[in-house]
Here is the input.
Amino acid sequence: MRETYHIEIIGPEDAPVQRASIRTAGLDAARERALRLFRRARVPQRSGPAAEAVRIVDGAGTEVFRWSVWDEGTGPGRSR
Here is the structure.
């Protein structure tokens, strides 16, 4: 069954700078998409506020994944 996930790229002071909604069969696919969007938001050529974190919220409004610039180098992310 497909589920809707909301991906938010977070800037300074936890302010969302980009949002995307996707429908996928599982959290793993949503996590891959979120990390890809986060890497793209961190390229030096990008204008606007710097991306500091990415989070995934499920259809019920519960945060199920979060990854930040401070987590880089500690593995693929953490689930909540």
In short: The chain has a mean pLDDT of 87. The beta strands are 3-10, 16-24, 53-58, 63-68, 78-79. Residues 3-62 form one domain.
